[in-house]
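re: ur question from yesterday

yeah so i grabbed the chain u mentioned. its 460 aa long if i counted rite. heres the sequnce exactly as i have it in my notes:
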Amino acid sequence: MRSVFLERFAVLGAVVLVCVLATVSSAAGPDGPYTQARVEFDSMSEMEQFMMIREFDVMSVKPGRGVTIVTDPDEVERLRTLGYDVTVEVEDMESFYAGRVRGENFGVFHTYSETVEFLDDFHATYPGISTEKISIGTTYEGHDIWAIKISDNPETDEPEPEVLFDGLHHAREVICPEVIIHFMGWLGENYGTDDEATFLVDQREMLFVPIVNPDGFLYNETNNPNGGGMWRKNRMPRGGCFGTDNNRNYDWEWGTSGVSHDPCDDQIYCGPNAFSELENLAMKAFAESHEFVVNLSFHSVVGAILIPWAYDDAVHTPDDALLREIANAMAMYNGYEVGQCGEVLWYSCSGSAGDWLYGAMDVPSFCVEMAGTGYWPQESELPGLLSAALWPQQYIARVGGTYLDVVDSYLLDGMMGNGEPDPGETVDLQVTVQNQGLSGTASNVTVTLSSDDPYVQLVD
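ran it thru and got these structure tokens back, copy pasting raw so excuse formatting
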């Protein structure tokens, strides 16, 4: 596969140099409670042996020390029989999460209908920078998968970089639509008054799909109307059971790692073939009808930023170094761990959205696994989680096209040789400005230096 990135460069001058991915196959679900358990280890080798048993639904990992998983009571007993030190932290996660929610209709979190209403309200409030909501496809149960576009001329397909944001491939990860809604709100509220928001709206075409899996999300709402639902997959019936993991159904190394081929597997069934699911076909057609430059996809609850490849962490992409650089920049303020799925979560998964977008569509894709104390975080956590996701979205929108930023500066010492500017001394200031964009070049760049200090005189 060819490298998808244009070269990033510095502009020079005389003074200025310018998915929770893999999951456990268990009895947890409608016939039994979802249980949160902590497995402790005495050594790294013991943890490695544990992770080879099966693909566990991992919430957090401390290498060589312990792992928190979503499981069920029968699995807990089986693991204890095998000699593992297992502590049940939450016996019934749905009941536990439901107790956290304050008020009806998921409390502060948006239901499917409330998300749709937000899209309508957003366009009504900001008609000059947004389209009406767009259905990119319908599900098995007949629900629309909605998208919306934000740009300065939203009804026109301008030659501007297109950036894709999506969330909720997995129905229980309720924080995902929230962070997308928050970023959209930030763009709308600050357009015309904030330089950053105005630049992004004027220079990018940003498309948002807040809920990829409406059927699974609505199933949780129907069965747990006050919140706490733990259903993960869609609701397509196959083999007498329901649901396919939408983030295992894309056509890139489909069905090769971190999946189940059993339709009655509660968590990681990958479907009978790649793109067997209507949600995945909708996302495929949507991607093929656009020229996306970069994608940011939201999941939870690990607290990490994952890069391709997800199917095998022993294999790196041709752009591995640059993908890590971008991911580390996104993690600058939230402190999330960065790496491939197998590096961060200790297993691989095939057929993921990120692998397909990067491998088949030449679109670099990043998976942000939001942190928090659970799939349904406490409402008091929401402001911090929204803040943790805002910068990654701003940054990805930035790097979708040409974007210049100062990345380094230092003084070339003068006559005194002490590393500081002394009275009467002339020193050179060297600054590095980088085009951080993944598309587009920077030409005819002008750099202006100024000083607010009356004791500093710019001589050149």
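noticed a couple things. Residues 1-30 have pLDDT under 50 and may be disordered. also The chain has twelve helices and 17 strands.
anyway ttyl
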